[in-house]
Write a structure and sequence with these properties.
Elements lengths: L4 E5 L3 H13 L3 E5 L2 H11 L3 E5 L6 H11 L4 E6 L4 H9 L4 E4 L4 H31 L10 H14 L5 E4 L6 H10 L8 E5 L8 H6 E2 L11 E2 L1 H4 L4 E5 L6 H13 L1 E2 L8 E2 L3 E6 L3 H6 L5 H7 L2 E4 L10 H16 L5 E2 L1 H9 L5 H15 L4 E2 L6 H4 L19 H15 L4 H7 L4 H10 L6
Parallel strand pairs: 1-2, 1-3, 3-4, 4-5, 6-13, 6-14, 7-10, 10-13, 15-16
Antiparallel strand pairs: 8-9, 11-12
């Protein structure tokens, strides 16, 4: 299959010919079909990357899309129609169309739409290749979705996986940072080597260096034998430093040496040891703010953040929640051997509105809890945790008209804080909860804007 292959479907022979000429001038390879039936057979035979189809013709464009979807054929689709109503556009989008253009055609616009569609297809194929590898071994549950922000970071991950460079994965708790690290390792030249994980926040400070670098016999009281550290165990593979922001400063200095010189010194050893390790680090903390506070070394930060990847929180990709719910609920049913329980539509509405501070991990836990506690074959609104059930219908929609001359972000923030305090009748704890921030953060911002000092 050519990377620039397009199938044009239209019952107007003259329009087909003109589209073919215009697209070939733009550098694409074009095949023609006169109706949906002929197009369907060509799609099954040639697997084009992009299909441009008229909406109104024998075996219509919508019918062609339905048949393609049923066969799990995956070209990107653009609909051409003289009936550019909202209804037909929505119907086409529901069936998987990327975009639509209206007759009479503006060929410059058509070529631009095709360029964008091809870029999207490239991105989807790269992500699909990455996922296909990971799904066989890890499931990749935490990184399901099609939001642009997610596709962008997955594309970046698929590119960097092939290069033996250091990666820093940033994102809130529960966004899938370890899954991303495993994805990078599994899709890298080191995939046959070890993948070693160390959670920097779960080790007592006095044991961090021993865990990372290992020790020799007699190095300290209780060291009856020599022991390799996590870095040595990762030799030839990938070391995943989860919550790297929790590392003590003295351990940060020694980690910097590993990154700069590729060598370690065990506790009690008189000589250094060479290691071949790729480091992937992750954190939910703001390392640059920690640098300003003197809690994290700036030189180590820049060594780790050669390629920074930012996983978006679930609340910023709400369009992915239905797909995630379906995927995770299915996995939970399979895991517990429960096949005949379904979610009601009202449950899905609540799940989509909720902010998910714990992200995908919280969503997965909530779905599993509802499944195992359900007393019937239908999970309803009554089965939802109270904090999700009480979210009002319009809480996820907050709209501000932006004037052309610009706005003051500080003025907007000050006004929001004032309104939250008014609504909470001056109760700072309630106002902070309403704004989804800590009380300490609220007090800091009140002091910043001179609120409550009158």
């Amino acid at each position: 299959m050519s990377s620039k292959q397009i199938l044009v479907v239209d019952d107007d022979s003259s329009l087909r010919s003109v589209m073919k000429m215009q697209l070939e001038e733009a550098g694409y390879e074009v095949t023609l079909a006169a109706d949906g039936a002929e197009a369907y057979e060509l799609i099954r035979e040639t697997r084009p990357r992009l299909v441009i189809s008229d909406l109104k013709m024998p075996t219509s464009g919508l019918e062609l899309m339905r048949r393609i979807a049923a066969e799990d054929i995956q070209p990107t689709l653009i609909i051409v129609t003289a009936f550019g109503t909202v209804e037909t556009a929505v119907e086409a989008m529901k069936l998987g169309a990327y975009d639509y253009v209206t007759k009479p055609l503006d060929f410059e616009e058509l070529v631009l739409v095709v360029h964008r569609a091809m870029e999207r297809q490239n991105l989807l194929e790269e992500v699909r290749n990455l996922r296909s590898v990971l799904d066989q071994r890890y499931g990749f549950e935490g990184i399901v979705g099609r939001a642009k922000s997610l596709l962008r970071v997955l594309d970046q991950a698929s590119r960097v996986a092939q290069r033996d460079t250091t990666v820093l994965i940033q994102g809130e708790t529960g966004t899938g940072k370890e899954l991303m690290a495993r994805a990078i390792h599994q899709n890298s030249p080191r995939k046959n080597g070890p993948f070693v994980t160390i959670n920097c926040g779960s080790i007592p400070k006095e044991l961090v260096e021993a865990e990372l670098f290992g020790y020799t016999r007699g190095a300290f009281t209780g060291a009856h034998t020599s022991r390799p550290g996590k870095i040595e165990l990762a030799d030839g593979g990938t070391l995943f430093l989860d919550e790297v922001g929790e590392l003590p400063l003295d351990a940060q200095v020694k980690l910097l040496r590993v990154l700069q010189q590729g060598e370690i010194a065990k506790i009690g050893a008189t000589e250094v040891q060479k290691v071949d390790v790729r480091v992937v680090a992750a954190t939910h903390r703001n390392l640059q703010a920690m640098i300003e506070d003197g809690a994290f070394r700036e030189d180590l930060y820049y060594r780790l953040a050669v390629v920074p990847l930012l996983l978006p929180p679930l609340r910023e990709r709400r369009e992915d929640i239905p797909e995630l719910v379906k995927h995770l609920f299915s996995k939970a049913k399979e895991r517990h051997g429960i096949a005949d329980v379904e979610l009601s539509s009202t449950v899905m509405q609540h799940l989509t509105r909720y902010r998910w501070p714990g992200n995908v991990r919280e969503l997965e836990n909530v779905l599993e809890r509802m499944l195992v506690l359900s007393s019937s074959n239908l999970v309803t609104e009554a089965d939802l945790p109270e904090e999700i059930r009480r979210v009002p219908p319009d809480s996820s929609t907050f709209w501000i008209e932006l004037p052309e001359e610009g706005v003051s972000l500080e003025a907007i923030e000050r006004e929001l804080i004032l309104r939250a305090l008014e609504q909470a009748k001056g109760n700072q704890t309630k106002a902070a909860k309403y704004l989804d921030i800590s009380r300490r953060t609220l007090i800091y911002r009140m002091e910043k804007y001179g609120l409550g000092q009158e």
